[in-house]
Specification:
Blueprint (H helix, E strand, L loop, with lengths): L1 H11 L10 E9 L6 E7 L3 E5 L7 E5 L4 E6 L4 E6 L13 E7 L6 E7 L2 E9 L4 H13 L1 H10 L7 H9 L9 E7 L4 E10 L13 E4 H6 L4
Parallel strand pairs: 6-12
Antiparallel strand pairs: 1-2, 1-11, 2-3, 3-4, 4-5, 5-6, 7-8, 8-9, 9-10, 10-11
Helix pairs in contact: 3-4
């Protein structure tokens, strides 16, 4: 009952997408397998996407949508990690068959998308068609900007930790989670999950999308090329 009521409230907010919003605030509940849930705030503008814990002064991630570049800001260390989008330096496995099931709810307000690779269920997503299309595009762009780095992380990990589902979710099939509508619930093969709690239009606050001055900036490419000691 509670979940149904929450979904009804979210769907009642649908007209918000038609407004010329300066900034959209999305509040999610994220959870890793076997760990307590935690809040994640996402702020979306035409030029940027910011991810944080809900506190303005906390660590945050910033996507420059025009430059297709991600910055990870660590306040305590006064550091900024810069990640430029790259094409994944990784070939798809020889056996790579991806399919998805798309089922509409009885009231047609939501759709359920199941994504499989080689008949293994990897991702379960509930989306609302036509809800917040620009926010969905921004979230997909953020994930896609990290695909090259995720591919390198995959290659560097032990083979016994490899999963084709990781490549589906982080490298090759990211768009499947966003192309049918805005995801209000996502469940992954490794036990991670995300649920949209609420969203709202808020006045644009430029300071939240500015990198702090005086911080050391590290390009992740330099970290990868640095000799190991």
């Amino acid at each position: 009952m509670q979940g149904s009521f929450r979904l009804t409230l979210l769907l009642c907010l649908l007209p918000l997408q038609a407004l010329a919003a300066n900034m959209i605030e999305l509040n999610f509940q994220d959870q890793d397998a076997g760990a307590p849930a935690y809040p994640t705030r996402v702020l979306v503008t035409e030029g940027f996407l910011r991810i944080d814990s809900g506190t303005d002064g906390a660590d945050f991630v910033l996507l420059d949508r025009k430059k297709n570049r991600v910055y990870e800001v660590t306040q305590e260390r006064r550091e900024i990690l810069r990640i430029d989008a790259e094409q994944p330096a990784l070939a798809k496995p020889a056996r790579w068959q991806v399919r998805e099931d798309l089922v509409s709810s009885p009231d047609s307000r939501t759709q359920h998308v199941n994504v499989y690779v080689n008949e293994m269920l990897c991702t379960q997503v509930t989306v609302v068609p036509k809800l917040l299309p620009d926010a969905a595009m921004a979230l997909g762009a953020y994930r896609q900007a990290l695909a090259g780095m995720q591919a390198l992380t995959y290659l560097a990990s032990p083979p016994d930790l490899h999963s084709d589902c990781d490549l589906v979710q982080h490298v090759w099939e990211i768009a499947r989670e966003f192309k049918h509508g805005f995801p209000i619930e996502q469940k992954y093969h490794d036990g991670r999950s995300r649920r949209l709690v609420d969203y709202r239009e808020k006045p644009y606050q430029p300071r939240l999308f500015v990198l702090p001055s005086g911080y050391r900036t590290i390009n992740i490419k330099e970290l990868r090329s640095a000799p190991t000691k």
